[in-house]
Amino acid sequence: MIMDPDVRAYYERGGELTRLREGRGRLEFHRTRDVLRRTLPPAPARVLDVGGGAGVHAEWLAADGYAVEVIDPVSLHVKEAAALPGVSARLGDARDLPVPGGQADAVLLLGPLYHLPERADRVRALAEARRATRPGGTVAAAFISRYAALHDSVYHGTFTQESARAADYRSVDTGTIISPVETGFRGYLHTPEEIPGEFADAGLPEPRRYGVEGVFWLYGDVNAWLDDDGRRELLLDAARRVECEPSLLGASGHLLAVTRV
Asked: Is the pTM of this model over 0.90?
């Protein structure tokens, strides 16, 4: 399978090594972990972390007692993930997983669907996750919200630039995101409503959809909440209370969809 060379270059420069460990990206990390801890089968289940990057989620999964294997198309990520205690890693593509069918208790797609602009490729990746998962196992997939680029642009102040506004409006209209050439981040942004159809076409039951960050990632003082242990737990509890509210799903920066095979 061919990976977009600009996307590959972005990740090979280390674009994802610290994103979920610093700043407000920590909210996405904490909330994704929170949802997965409530929805995955209990340890020591076998988890395939497909597109798992440098192992930011594989690390805590292994610490929780799971048998974790990262499958990722980027050599830098595989090297970093394989160095983590209790984690194995190898190269592979979400659309053609190098594993036998029905061998995993859970398959995570916490990034691959961002970078597959063609619907057929996304459905293929979901179908591969289904194939690799045992009956009764769990498939969880992450999505970037259709409105995330526009919201993020306003948050950071780049929306005042005409080129940024044009890109943001295009992402809302088409789902396609192309960040400035120096970053190389290209992807597809989902509406909450289109996710169940892609699961269905992959032969998966309708998933439960979660707003990962909710609206809280847009708060100017979100880092202050994340820096304080007590306030962080209050913030996570607030997000948990409204995580499946349909009217708020699209406001979240990321969405998580979870189903049983």
From this structure: yes
